Amino acid sequence: MDPRSSPTARSAMRCVRLLLGCADAAELLGTVLAEGPSWITGEGSALYLLDSTGMLRLTASHGLPDWAHERYSVVDPAGDLPAAMALRLRRPYLLSPERTSADYPNRNAGMGTGMVAVATLPMIVDGRPLGVLALALAHRGTVPRRDLDVLETLADACGHRLGHLLEHARAGTGALGGTGGTGGHPGHGEQPGGGGHPEPEGQPGRGGRPDRGAAHGVRPGPCAGAADPAAATAHSMLSLAVRASGHGAFERDLVTGETHWDAQALRLVGRPAPERGGTSPAPSLDLVVHPEDLPDVQAAMAEALATGGPYRIRYRVPRRGGGVIRIEETGEVMLDVHRRPVRIAGLIADLDHGRTPGERPPGDGAPGGRSPAPSGPGSPSGPGQEPAGTTEGTSAAGARSALLLALTRALSRAVTVRDVTTAVTDICRPAFGAAGIVLDLVDEGRLLPVSHTVYGGERRTELTRLADLSEGVMQRALARSAPLFSEPARRGRGRGADRTAGPAGGTGRGEGDGTGGGTGSPLAPAAWAVLPLIASGRQVGSCLITFATERAFGREDRTLYSSFAGILAQSLERARLYDTHHHRATELQRAMLPRTLPRLPGIASAARYLPSTEGMQIGGDWYDLLRLPDGRIGLVIGDVQGHNAEATAVMGQLRSGLRAYATDGHDPAATLARTSRLLTELDTELFATCLYLTLDPADGTVRAARAGHPAPVRVTADARAVELNLPGGPPLGVAPERPYPLAVEYLPPGETLLAYTDGLVEDREEDYDESVHRMLGGLELWARNTGPVRVEPGPDLEKLADLLTLNVTERRSRPDDVALLLLHRLSAVHQRG
Which of 149, 480, 512, 545 is most buried, taking the most CB atoms under 10 A from its CB? Predict the structure, then answer.
């Protein structure tokens, strides 16, 4: 994994260092969101730059709806919008959470949850204003001074970097803004300033510089890339320098499958270039790379796609008149926020450019040498050295083994069936140069589709139709336990010569001139392979791989695809077993928790449970609301150590035992003592924390005891949130002989209690006490907005439960499960209602 994107590596100083290396506004905003503090949520964030007329123009954004882009693409600094206020006042302008929905992005059409603050920060360098950075924050109350200092530091870093880029643009040595693209081949590139468009949930982002710009959902503003003479001059100089050095540019969008080369790249490989320059769709990889080098290039691309980041490959391209061209491709695989590859961009160079006949480039090794992804600041490759990983005389068999090894590593990291299909989509498909893949699994004797992966756009619908049409051939391949391959059309061959029926009922022939350059459509692919997936003698499914250009599958190719089918089948079988166990454990956990909370007199209640997103995504958190003898109400919340099936099973036993002790009439201290002894008698080494309290709704008396659990929070009628001062004992199962102290408190009518597990506030990147303080501020905000009498407590509690979990659901990962239980004592007004 690239340490630049590791969640544990995020810090303000690291973010500043990365900001000082960004190339454009979109990348600056993307870096702040990806590498800055986790309490910068990103949704609704934007970056404005001052134009030559003195207006603020929206240059990059994240999470802004289309209507906001249209309405607020230009902001008058003399107005009263937050961006204008920050620039005019030359200091941060904050919208507190209670004002967010009313004031942002304007006073009439707001957005936000009511729990998110917005900070607009001026970017000023040497007294000269450059623009404004607007960031949405997860603060549930006031923004602490230390956090404001961090925000100002990030804004200053953005401002200094923008100032540097603007100076270089004016000097004609760089460019800022602009969304023009250069062309591309197995990979692909863009001019600085591009940005991606937001994608639906679960889909990779696209566009711009997706490493930290578009990859993190940052899109360019409507005014990004406006004509700038300095930027145009810099772009022209850059293009001239690339051409003069013998380099061509390429770009490949891994979401849409569109690949473009510029004119120079096409000339380098002996292909006709566009008459007026610009870019052109790239030929298929197998039609460019020398057949002996193709497996090596595919293996290198598979490695680069799996890890992301820079890579370098050398390979040969056959000349039409004989001989070869030696090419070095240098590029970068760009990942989105989910670490999925979305774009490749880079340059290709003729290694013999500018050399005398017979002169070899420094460190030149065998054609087909490769260096996937590790090249970077710490790369061992340098002047006079062959890229790391190059081996002289690499055989075609060794290259195919390397490709299989790279694909095996990618699939071995997959845990669920969804992970396997993601690896097939993101790594296997581009590495093979395939246009689409249809993956069907056997379910109760039938083949059912689990994944139709194809490059985006209208072809997604066409591939779904292809999946239906290909059902017969996929069943036949599985029944025969033998793969099926299309055969290329040959000039002069009769129609009866090709007996292989294609996925759509055709033969898979291309429409070319018989040279293997034919192309097909998704419903009639030019070439295809159907692979039976069999693991341990069991039929797992079938895999259809389609290609947009015609190709011949030689003996080595068929062996390669058959071996890949075996690896894929093993991965799918393992993933299905995991999914089955996870489903059973999840169902077990759901059965252990109450489906609904009981409706009890004198109170309103709400609860939430969120599983962990790590491991088996289950855990030992639980809650309960009990109807006790003599009209009292019991509130229980607990957390068993661990996030696996054992923790869930122990949780179920503890819940049943504690409920039995409580309904027998024992007070909270005695109930916890008995439950602790019960845990020690179970066949487990796990322990648990727990809070148990009782409420008498008639007089508000609260009796409580806790076993190593966070203290409950009381939200008072005057909008204060305070933790109850409850003395605690050890976790359950740790010291069963020790008694638990009993505390007595009072809950007046109209006030609320919150009980929660530590997953609600625990954040690896923040001190625990600070997280608790942030939560208390949010509770006070909620209390000020609602009040005990103005609205119905039931809906308000449900909204509060959603707001409390908002920050948790926005985290990149959730290492711990979360449970919370809210209990509100009704006032006399509500009880009469």
Answer: 545
Alpha-carbon span 457 to 186, nearest angstrom? 19
The SS3 call for residue 15 is helix
* Alpha carbon of residue 298 to chain centroid: 25
What is the Cα–Cα distance from 362 to 353, expressed in whole angstroms?
A: 13
Residue 488's closest CA among 507, 466, 473? 507
* pLDDT confidence bin for 549, thresholds 50/70/90: confident
Strand partners, 134: 46, 120
Dist CA 174 CA 232 (whole Å): 9
Is the predicted pLDDT of residue 55 greater than 60, yes or no?
Answer: yes
Q: Read off the amino acid at residue 254.
A: L
Amino acid letter for position 810:
E
Pairing of strands 713-715, 752-756: antiparallel
Quote the distance between the C-alpha of residue 770 and its chain's center.
Answer: 27
Q: Is 489 left (phi over 0), alpha (psi -120 to 50) or beta?
A: beta
Among all chains, which residue has been given the structure tokens 């800055």?
36
Residue carrying the six token digits 């030689």: 554
- Dist. CA 203–CA 77, nearest whole Å: 37
Determine if residue 445 is left, alpha or beta; phi over 0 gives left, psi from -120 to 50 gives alpha, anything else beta: left
Contact 792/827 with Cβ under 8 angstroms? no
- Summarised one tens digit per residue, pLDDT across range 473-514 is 777 877 888 898 988 764 334 333 334 455 555 444 333 333
Question: Structure pTM?
Answer: 0.58
Strands 128-137 and 117-125: antiparallel
User: Quick one: pLDDT at residue 107?
Assistant: 33
- The distance of Cα 669 from the centroid of its chain, to the nearest Å, equals 45
What's the chain's average pLDDT? 74
